[in-house]
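Let's practice the habit of predicting before peeking. Look at the sequence and jot down your guess about where helices and strands might fall. Then scroll down.
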Amino acid sequence: MNSKQLFEQLLQRYPVLESCKTKIYFSYKMLADCYKNGGKVLVCGNGGSAADADHIVGELMKGFLLKRKITASAVNGDDEILSRLQGALPAISLNAHSALFSAFSNDLEFTDVYAQQVYGYGRKGDVLIALSTSGNSKSVVNAVRAAAAAGVESIGITGGKDSLMTEKCSICIKLPETETFKIQELTLPVYHCLCAMLEADFFEA
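Done guessing? Here is the structure:
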């Protein structure tokens, strides 16, 4: 399926997402532009959202629905190693670096640990995906603030209530639920769709 078909399938399977379909589609376009221009995606969240951040990176960095075969011409003609690898869409989970995470949190402030990594990794043209069911998690909001300061666009995925992320993210997908577990239940199909759409754009079936 192409990206348009994948998007339509998401709305067919989850009609409750009709209220935020425009924000989901604009998020896809922002991510596609990022990758077309050689950028990378940074992702962060806490608790269940941290698990989602790791999950998103997993879908972007290796084959998801497609095999993503690469050719020897990509890296100095080494057919043997390339036959075992897959095409990747560069992405980094900011909650996955335990030594840096614990050192920064111990020496400075936990609420700035994602912001520090956005400052270190982020470059103009990159995109931050910020996950918070409340939209008010301090560490995630501070990452969004650091992204803006670094010229990095941000996509927030939150619940249905207005929040700090509604105000500060470049795009905020407000999922139409207010209970944490119900927001998380809708978060997964949204990012699965975004990852599948990007894969369809950049890799052959």
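How did you do? The beta strands are 41-44, 91-93, 127-131, 153-158, 171-174.
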